[in-house]
From TrEMBL:
Polar residues bias (residue ranges): 162-171
Pfam families: Brix
Stored PANTHER family: RIBOSOME PRODUCTION FACTOR 1, U3 SMALL NUCLEOLAR RIBONUCLEOPROTEIN PROTEIN IMP4
Name listed for the protein in its UniProt record: Brix domain-containing protein
Biased composition (Acidic residues): 104-153
Superkingdom in the source lineage: Eukaryota
Biased segments, Basic and acidic residues type: 1-10, 23-62
């Protein structure tokens, strides 16, 4: 309880107008101590009440949701998919498709109103969250037979739930959806106009399988980042580093000439590591044979040696995790990174490469994972809804970072290969006045 002399008066929060600076400082300290004492007494009283009734604490935690900038994220209001693919707009592709599906089926949207009842829906969701099931991203989606003809597209089926699946959802109010930073990217939700604009990055289902990636890695002219460029060859499978000529009498090839040579040698991409003050500053990725070209800036570059407790990477093809790419530009960037890795990872290597987008910064991390037994001091695995995940009570996953560690930020997407006089670009970063609007 607060002391009697520390009770906050009605005038304690009012400004104290006096010419004496020392008195103003003393009054400010007294007001601060009184407010802190009241907050402390209220907190102790609330703890006593919650100890008697634990439901009060659960209710308080349910209401006390942190208002982060990710929760304040705003999108452009788009009724229909733009004809140009929507690279200049910031809208949630998944939300737009769910809205269209709900309007067609005249059902409430997920998370806004209550849905139809099914008592076994919760058990099905818990079973699908098991870490022990050997299911990929395609297995988590509904089967194609469950979709109605109206939900199927010309080339690929719509991965959103059908009318019958929406009707079989739970009637009770669902828990809050996980934040965007914890959700994986659904690569099959690309707009049709965006897929038609970049057919090499968005292959259709009836198209022949794409060629296995073959990457040529080089640096800027007169660069000294030979060690860093060699590290990238261990990060991207089936890649080769070729030094760029820096001899005073040697011919200095441009990126367009290098891309033409790489295309004739069956390369699928060219990566140029840029340098500033003898440190990596940028990454230019050219998708062959005709582009587009992506320009990234690099910050927070750390090699494996500078990471405490790092592991040693092997030659196994890593598993790829793409998180939080929701806009058309984000899906385009995610498909670019997907084209740099083979579609069949080596699961025996237990290596995973994560590209996590948060506030338009792409965090690249590489880990090795292992499944181990749960220790007595560890807590149970809890899902995004706050409930304990079934099937993994005695199993935990251990991670060891392999490196390198870096952060990327997309700056420009060019139409063709590299910039030239009058270079046209598909998208260019600009300073947004709204801090809650993100492009990816």
């Amino acid at each position: 309880m607060a002391k009697r002399g520390m009770e906050l008066s009605d005038k304690a929060a009012l400004p104290f107008k006096t010419a004496n600076k020392q008195r103003r400082q003393d009054l400010h300290l007294k007001q601060k101590r009184a407010r802190d004492a009241l907050k402390r007494s209220e907190r102790f009283a609330r703890k006593k009440e919650e100890a008697k009734d634990p439901k009060l604490r659960e209710e308080r935690l349910r209401r006390n949701i942190p208002i982060t900038i990710d929760r304040k994220r705003v999108f452009d209001e788009v009724q229909d998919e733009p004809d140009d693919g929507g690279l200049g707009l910031v809208y949630d592709v998944e939300r737009l498709k769910r809205k269209k599906l709900a309007e067609e089926q005249e059902l409430p949207l997920e998370g806004e109103e209550q849905e139809a009842s099914d008592p076994n829906a919760d058990d099905d969701e818990d079973d699908a969250d098991s870490m022990l099931e050997d299911s990929g991203d395609d297995d988590e989606l509904p089967a194609e037979d469950d979709f109605e003809p109206s939900d199927l597209e010309d080339n690929t089926h719509d991965p959103l739930p059908s009318k019958s699946q929406l009707k079989s959802a739970s009637s009770r109010p669902r828990a809050l959806s996980p934040t965007r930073s914890t959700t994986s990217t659904n690569l099959s939700l690309a707009p049709a106009a965006l897929a038609a604009k970049f057919p090499s990055l968005f292959p259709s289902s009836d198209a022949p399988p794409p060629l296995p990636p073959k990457i040529l890695i080089t640096t800027s002219i007169n660069s000294t980042l030979h060690t860093e460029a060699a590290i990238l060859t261990s990060l991207f499978p089936n890649s080769k580093y070729i030094r760029r000529s820096s001899h005073r009498y040697g011919y200095k090839f441009s990126v367009r000439e290098i891309a033409a040579f790489a295309t004739n040698q069956s390369y699928t991409a060219v990566i140029v590591l840029e340098e500033s003050l003898k440190r990596p500053s940028g990454l230019t990725i050219v998708h062959l044979p005709t582009g587009p070209t992506f320009h990234f800036t690099i910050t927070n570059w750390y090699t494996s040696r500078s990471i405490p407790g790092h592991g040693r990477a092997t030659d196994h093809i890593p598993e790829l995790i793409l998180n939080n790419f929701t806009t058309p530009l984000g899906l385009l960037t995610a498909h670019l990174f997907r084209s740099l890795f083979p579609a069949t990872p080596d699961l025996k290597g237990r290596q995973v490469l994560t590209l996590h987008n948060q506030r338009d910064y792409i965090f690249l991390r590489r880990h090795r994972y292992i499944f181990r037994d749960k220790r007595e001091t560890e807590k149970s695995v809890v899902g995004p809804d706050g409930r304990e995940v079934k099937g993994v009570e005695g199993i935990r996953a251990g991670l060891q970072e392999l490196g390198p560690r870096l952060t990327l930020k997309l700056r420009r997407v060019d139409k063709g290969i590299q910039r030239r006089s009058g270079q046209d670009w598909e998208w260019k970063a600009r300073m947004e006045k709204t801090r809650t609007k993100f492009q990816l």
